[in-house]
Design goal:
By secondary structure, the chain is mainly α. The protein has helices at about 1-5, 10-25, 25-50, 60-65, 70-100, 105-120, 125-155, 180-185, 185-195, 200, 210-240, 250-260, 260-295, 315-335, 335-370, 370-375, 385-400, 405-435.
């Protein structure tokens, strides 16, 4: 449920409009490819998390199996991604609540949600898990409701129509109106929608029996992630013309409203609200654990690596919250649609770097083991090394294709410096330490 809470955010309900508008019905193929990437990353993380269930997860793995400098860059990049993405979710929640209660400014709602998320993340981890369970459950129920209504609309049972068949799916240019090339061009946004599943690894050290729970969770979550994304998306493009999709409104709500189901559109507005809160909650959990790991590895100030009496990295959480609240203020000054697209693309770039590092770390980890040690592993990546290499090279290809999309290309201008700068600083600090030691 933590993984589902992290990935089913407002980016899925709103960002899917961008993907469908670019790729048309072929966006289903983009989500299918994204699901395969999720599977590759999750099984790689599963092998590492069961073998070494440590706080910080992939950052510590990256340090040990790739390099400390790369781990520093990936860790800070990952943290910066979430502390810029979480405020956008808070603002999204504030805007939705302002629609229900116009007399109260979205800013105040955003601050209220920020306070609630702060309390949850500073409390014991079981409170966090309990909150995520119910928030994720509500989102899953809404998606199942959409699937049920979409099927009834498709067969003409409701919505005042008749059996649709392929009349909507293949209208306005066919299945891939602008060519299958667009499937690859939108993949960076797809990766954003799937991000959050790696939080399972971040929580591995705080679970009671990781060797038992992590493999089972990974198997279940992979199937559920794929089904909760691909099936609703397939039904969506069969009942809603792709050329009407946009970022202005949830495509799910727009599709249902097209057939006179405005009440369902209102429900989805509330779903987006819970999705924003849930994703903010999961994202803050993930980035504070990442900051804690950086501090433990000497890649961030030591005070950020301290735990409170309940085992929560309180200082890392406080710093992350502070930066998030600063982001809330900045986002209220400019809520242009392009800013939201840039934010999604940046999150996709830095998230892909983290996922590539997970697969790369697992590859190096397995290569260091003897045949006897490999046999003793309690959980193994199936079809190694092919699954691992697929996870690495397909994501690298997705990042390369970003160059060909003008509105997404900006993520490289921001993402590459966010990755490289911490690496350079770490290298310079290491050289300075060596000079002092001599």
């Amino acid at each position: 449920m933590i993984a589902l809470g992290g990935i089913i955010g407002s980016g899925y309900f709103l960002g899917s409009g961008y993907v469908i508008g670019k790729a048309g019905p072929a966006s289903v193929l983009a989500y299918l490819l994204g699901g395969l990437i999720v599977y590759a990353v999750m099984v790689c993380l599963g092998e590492l998390a069961v073998a070494r269930p440590i706080a910080g997860s992939f950052i510590s793995y990256t340090r040990d199996y790739i390099s400390p400098a790369w781990a520093c860059g990936v860790g800070w990049c990952y943290w910066l991604t979430w502390v810029t993405y979480v405020p956008s979710e808070m603002i999204a929640a504030g805007i939705i609540m302002n629609g229900f209660f116009p007399v109260i400014s979205p800013m105040w709602w955003a601050v209220l949600f920020g306070l609630a998320i702060t309390f949850i993340n500073l409390s014991r981890v079981n409170l966090f898990g309990e909150m995520e369970f119910w928030l994720a459950l509500f989102k899953i129920a809404a998606l199942l409701m959409f699937c049920g209504l979409a099927i009834l609309i498709f067969f003409g049972i409701i919505g005042g129509g008749e059996f649709l068949g392929t009349s909507v799916l293949l209208s306005s240019g066919g299945f891939a109106p602008d060519g299958y090339w667009t499937v690859l061009l939108t993949m960076v946004i797809i990766l954003v929608n799937f991000q959050g599943s790696e939080i399972i690894g971040l929580a591995a050290a705080e679970s009671k029996e990781p060797a038992k729970t992590i493999p089972a969770t990974i198997r279940q979550i992979t199937v559920r992630i794929i089904s909760l994304y691909i099936l609703p998306m397939l039904l969506l493009v069969t009942i809603f013309p792709w050329d009407k999709a946009s970022l202005e409104k949830s495509v799910f709500a727009a599709a249902l409203s097209t057939y006179g189901l405005d009440w369902a559109g209102a429900i989805f507005s509330f779903v987006i609200l819970t999705a924003a809160i849930s994703c903010s909650n999961s994202g803050l959990y993930g980035c504070t654990r990442a900051m804690y790991a950086l501090a433990q590895e000497g890649m961030a100030p030591a005070f950020l690596g301290r735990l409170n009496s309940q085992g929560v990295p309180q200082n890392a959480t406080a710093l992350s919250i502070l930066v998030c609240w600063l982001g809330v203020v900045l986002y209220t000054l400019d809520q242009d649609q392009r800013i939201y697209t840039y934010l999604l693309a940046l999150s996709g770039f830095t998230g892909a770097i983290a996922w590539i590092s997970i697969c790369w770390s697992q590859y190096n980890f397995r290569k260091q083991l003897s045949p006897a040690q490999v046999k003793a592993l309690k959980y193994k990546v199936p079809f190694f090394p092919y699954i691992t290499q697929f996870g690495i090279w397909v994501q690298i290809a997705c990042l390369i294709f970003v160059v060909f999309t003008e509105e997404l290309r900006t993520c490289l201008y921001l993402g590459v410096p966010l990755l490289v700068l911490p690496i350079v600083i770490y290298r310079l600090a290491a050289v300075r330490k060596e000079a002092v030691a001599e």
